[in-house]
Amino acid sequence: MTDHPAPLDPVSAAIVEGGLVAILRAPTSDGFAAVADVLVAAGVTALEVTLTSHGALEAIGGLSRQLPETIKIGAGTVLTEDEAKAAVDAGADFLVSPAHTLGAQPVPYYPGTFSPTEVYRAHTAGAPLIKLFPAAGLGPGYLKDLRGPLPAVRIMPTGGIGLDDISKWIAAGAVAVGLGGPLIGDAATGGSLKALATRARHAVDAVAFARS
Fold this sequence. Notes:
Blueprint: H1 10-18, E1 20-24, H2 32-42, E2 46-50, H3 56-66, E3 72-76, H4 81-90, E4 94-96, E5 109-110, E6 112-113, H5 116-124, E7 130-132, H6 140-147, E8 155-157, H7 166-171, E9 177-179, H8 181-184, H9 193-211
Parallel strand pairs: 1-2, 1-9, 2-3, 3-4, 4-5, 6-7, 7-8
Helix pairs in contact: 2-9
C-alpha cells in the first residue's frame, strides 16, 4: 500500500474541496428543495439524499435540476444493487452506504466502515472516499490512530458529529465530514430555515478554520 493517495475523480475531489456533505433525511422529501437552497447559499457544495426518505429518488432528480452543476447530489443509505441503479438513473452523482454492500458502480461509491480491516478492504476495493460510521462513538483520536498505518486512505466520518466537532475531525485527518441531524435539525419538516442557515455557515466556517 502506497503512502500517497491515488488521484481522485471529479465528484470526490469536489467533496474533498468542500469538506462536508449535508445529509438530508426526513420522513418525506417534501422539504428538501427549500433546505437545499439554504445550504447551498451558505456554501455547502455536496448533498446526500437518503433513500429512507419517502420520495428520495424524485428529490434527487429535482435537486439536480434545481441546483448549479457545481453542487454534487448523492444518494445515501444505498444497500442493494437495484437501489444503486435507481439512484444513478435518478441523477445521483455519488452513492453512500452504511456498510460495504455494493460492487463497482458507474458513479463514485463511498462504503460505510468501522474497523481497520473494513477500512483497508474498502480502500483496496477502490473506494475513493470511505465513510467511517457511526463515527461519534469512536472520536477523532480513532481516526488519527487509523491514519498512522493507513495514510493513503481518505476517510469521511459520519454519524452523530456535532457542529463543534467538525474542526476536530478535520484536524485528525478527515478529508470531509458527513453531517445529518446536528446540521439539518428540523428544517426539513417545517423548522426554521433561518436557524438552518446559521448552522450551515457555522459548519462551512469550521472546515475552513480547521484547514487554516
